[in-house]
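Whether sequence alone determines local backbone shape is best considered at the level of individual chains. In the encoding step, the backbone of a single protein was reduced to a row of integers, each denoting a local shape. For completeness, the protein is quoted in full, as a sequence line and a line of structure tokens.
***
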Amino acid sequence: MSPKVQLVHKTECGIGEGPHWDDLTNTLLYVDIPASLVYRWDPVTSQLKSCVVKDRSVGAVVPRKKGGLVVAAGHRFAFLDETTGEMETIQECNKEFPHSRFNDGKCDPAGRFWAGTMGLEQKPAHPRPKEGSLYCLDNDHSVKKTVSPVDISNGLSWSHDKRTMYYCDTLRFTIDAYDYDITTGNISNMREVCHFDRNTDGFPDGHAIDVDGNLWVAMFSTSLILKLDPRTGQKLETIKVSDTALKTTSVCFGGPNLDELYVTSARNSPLMDGEDLSGALFKITELGTKGYPANVYEG
């Protein structure tokens, strides 16, 4: 079995991020950060809907168990009305750095919403240094800062036994592991899982975990998806997504059997000659594995 890469939708996102498979509706949620858009794609009808978020950017979106959506946008966690784009602020974060924004985020197995910040980019992959942190929005709507300082807060995944959290601060060029306490949401005992080479691998970005315990990591600037075993640090497989969509940003498992890997990307600047697929949404099938149902916000 050989993985197959398909173009799903040429959305041309400035920075596509945070894909999330919504099991209740069997649709895919993802965002365009600079355009401040939340997208919802229906694979049955091929219909792509968008919602303009009334903030200067939106870094991540997740469904709420009680209904509706929750976003990490600008400097705030907020409930989002998908129909109108109206937001109800829950908490504001990282205000000590006015030139910063939320980036990637995901819910943990207890339904807390974790999302991190970064300084605004001065040029591609060069944000204002050490102006980011990783935050956790608990189910009682309180927020705690968990990792700080960071450069570009990115991918999050949790092991199936709920004892380990995997996290990526992109400019460390590592995936790091933490002991994770599902009862409190506390993390401890940081250690490096895998180190990446900037020139051959690219910049580690968003990631997802499969039922075998392996991570699938989107590598920004190389259009690669790397499969690695976080227990050994071994890189097991490399998949090239596109010749032009070089800035692969994040991944999630979706589809009826959770065996399809959706990949977001960011737009090239300047655009490449010919048909430039940067910013598009892709799907990889025939991976020989599948993921878990995505966690939703329980608060």
Remarks:
- The chain has one domain: 4-285.
- Residues 4-285 form a domain with the Neuraminidase fold (CATH 2.120.10.30).
- The chain has no helices and 26 strands.
